[in-house]
UniProtKB/TrEMBL annotation:
A single cellular component GO annotation: plasma membrane
Membrane topology: Multi-pass membrane protein
Residue ranges of every copy of the Sodium/calcium exchanger membrane region domain listed in the record: 26-180, 211-353
Keyword Transmembrane part of the UniProt annotation: yes
Entry's localization field: Membrane
UniProt keywords, alphabetically: Membrane, Signal, Transmembrane, Transmembrane helix
Signal peptide: 1-29
Protein name: Ionic antiporter
Taxonomic lineage from the root: Bacteria, Pseudomonadati, Pseudomonadota, Betaproteobacteria, Burkholderiales
Length: 355
């Protein structure tokens, strides 16, 4: 194991501990920002070591689920601390994560892969299964609350919340079963795709376990440092007069850095299937695991929970899914598809700043 792969997550964890006990000044904030980037680099490295040991698609599932579980913990902790003022936090976070992944991460992967390799391929069977599940989960969680009539606009009744939470968790679990057991071949790279790891010997069990432990340390550090830096981000947003939802977007961007980097590296290595597994799997986990957790938290603590999106956001979400169904519907991509997704990503960011 390279020395930096050991030192970066441990150093980031040390700075996170220091930031919890010290006042966040300019110097400490700068150090935390550098440590966050280092933790992202280390997380991607250790995720790739684990992925090489367990093989696809289990490897991409490790990174997606690990980051999502920690993201859920971050959202729930902020709900516990913020009380009723965080009623829209889960909605804003989930929506931001889905839009960032489906337009930004996918767009960068397609554009970078198209520039490097002209044209790339992936298995439509797996991608279409993931995309259809994602549309259903997003529709149940973020769209329908804006149209139901049993409770105020944008909210669900308790029975509706229980149904959506159970449905989200069940659909995510079924997708994981399909991805890893029943139709695992749908999520494996096409036989003619390049694979830079095919000739490399898998790491030992000891090294893989060590990398898994350091991966968790790095991910906890990423989320923790992002949370520590969030007050400064919030102050900057307020000073700029931007909408409060921008804070959730900024935090989501920080938390999704490891997945983004891993997905882009895979696309540059002509392993677009791995990129799609990471991106769409992360979006599914973001909803399938987050919704049940926040529903339980809101119900137990009797906190308000607003899930329904505003009309502008509903249109952007529909556009993202429509374009994704078209651009990913042939199993072959080029840089044009990436450019289309990135334009939608730019529109999402711009309209978040100027609603």
């Amino acid at each position: 194991m390279p020395a930096w792969a050991l030192l970066l997550p441990l150093g980031a964890a040390g700075l996170l501990a220091a930031s919890l006990g010290l006042t966040m000044g300019t110097a400490l904030a700068a150090a935390c920002a550098v440590a966050l980037i280092g933790a992202v680099i280390a997380a991607v490295h250790h995720a790739e070591v684990v992925a090489h040991r367990v093989g696809e698609p289990f490897g991409t599932l490790v990174l997606a689920v690990a980051i999502t579980v920690i993201e859920v913990a971050l959202i729930v902790s902020m709900m516990l601390a913020g009380g009723p003022d965080t009623a829209t936090l889960p909605r804003d976070t989930i929506y931001a994560a889905v839009m960032i992944i489906c337009t930004g991460v996918v767009g960068i992967c397609l554009l970078a892969g198209g520039i490097s390799h002209h044209e790339q391929t992936f298995r439509m069977e797996g991608t279409n299964s993931a995309l259809s599940a994602l549309v259903a989960l997003a529709g149940l969680s973020l769209v329908l609350p804006s149209f139901t009539t049993s409770s105020p606009e944008g909210t669900y009744t308790l029975s509706q919340l229980v149904f959506v939470a159970a449905s989200s968790l069940a659909l995510w679990a079924i997708f994981v079963f399909v991805q890893t057991v029943r139709h695992r071949d749908y999520f494996l790279p096409p036989k003619n795709a390049a694979d830079e790891d095919v000739h490399a010997a898998p790491p030992s069990n000891a090294l893989a376990l060590a990398s898994f432990g350091l991966l968790l340390v790095a991910l906890v550090s990423v989320v923790g440092l992002a949370k520590q830096l969030s007050p400064m981000i919030e102050a900057a947003v307020v000073a700029a007069g931007a909408p409060k939802a921008v804070i959730g977007i900024a935090i989501a961007l920080l938390v999704l850095l490891p997945e983004t980097w891993a997905a882009v590296r895979a696309a540059l290595a002509d392993r677009l299937q791995t990129s799609m597994n990471l991106a769409l799997g992360s979006a599914l986990a973001s909803i399938g695991l987050t919704i049940p957790a926040v529903v339980v938290t809101a119900t137990v603590l009797d906190l308000p929970l607003v899930l329904g999106l505003a009309p502008k956001d509903l249109v952007l979400l529909a556009l993202a899914f429509l374009v994704g169904a078209i651009t990913l519907g042939t199993g072959r991509t080029n840089m044009m598809q990436g450019a289309v997704h990135l334009v939608l990503f730019a529109a999402f960011l711009f309209l978040s700043l100027v609603p």
